Please model this.
Amino acid sequence: MAPKRPEAAGAFPIPVESTAPDRPDPNALYAALDLGTNSCRMLIAQPKGSQFHVVDSFSKSVQLGQGLERSGRLSRSSMARTIAALRVCRQKIDRHNVARMRLIATEACRRAANAREFIRTVRRETGLKLEIIQPEEEARLAVISCAPLVSTKTEQLLVVDIGGGSTELVWIDLSSVAPRDRPRAIMRLHAGFHTADSPFPTAKVVDWISVPLGVATLRDQFSDVEADSARYALMSCFFEEHLADFTPYQDEQAREGFQIVGTSGTVTTVAASHLGLKRYDRTKVDGLRMSSDQIEKVIQRYLSLGPGGRRRDPRIGPDRQALIMSGSAILQALLRLWPTDRLSVADRGLREGLLYAQMSADGVLEDGPL
Model:
């Protein structure tokens, strides 16, 4: 007897669900939040070609690390300021229906004894899940954010991210990468500093360091020195001492084929001062190239102005004047070691790096020129 065909719903086998991941939505919005020692910053963006389009942003000085150098803990007032700012970020995330996001905290939360308690409080009060990242990832995010600014003529690259609580330096050898592929090779570092198994031309990370001194922590360590110029000189020498273990090509580096990319409020402020801008303009600052001599001229002018003059300078202002000299001290120490005619100013940082990393991992960026 022939077998009887099953009837109705049982006539077809139960479909097997595909194990392939869902195709990412190219129109989806991404959020990236960077909670540093001084500031809380967020970008909400949409992939656009090989770049992204910023839909919304937020930036506020919260001084999370205020008093941390002395007590080793985040203070109640600094945590309250930060949570108030994070509530605004949550509102923006909800308003734009953002589903893909990464929210990170850096040096202040790495060092504070009560950081875990603070992270739990943020989750309870705002619903945001902050992630404390390690120095290597912070350095990596700073590097990939600057990929579009890397010249095709660059063979040796130093990326410097001067933060509030720490400074990251990454030295990259691009000499084995075809010139037109060098910015893209930097972008591929989103997967890690060690890419030996990559089928693509790779950017070789020669060395990197995270110095636990940023504009706020360095300032606090020398707050008892009253003389402005003496404090500046001491800060610069003190920072240089912390670079003793970071010496790739220190004694033989030629200016030709060498590029420094600096990303921080210090570098962008120095650039705005160099240009004589009465009002800050990101389009004129981001990507600007400066020489060591031009930067030194700006810093000497800051010293001649003194604290009062810097406070009245529209390019510095009352909020940043307390930090600009510690940042300048770090910058001068770097340029003593590696003078250059090609310091590229980057008005970008961890937020942009977070966005590039998320979008690259999801495959929503086109593989075109940066």
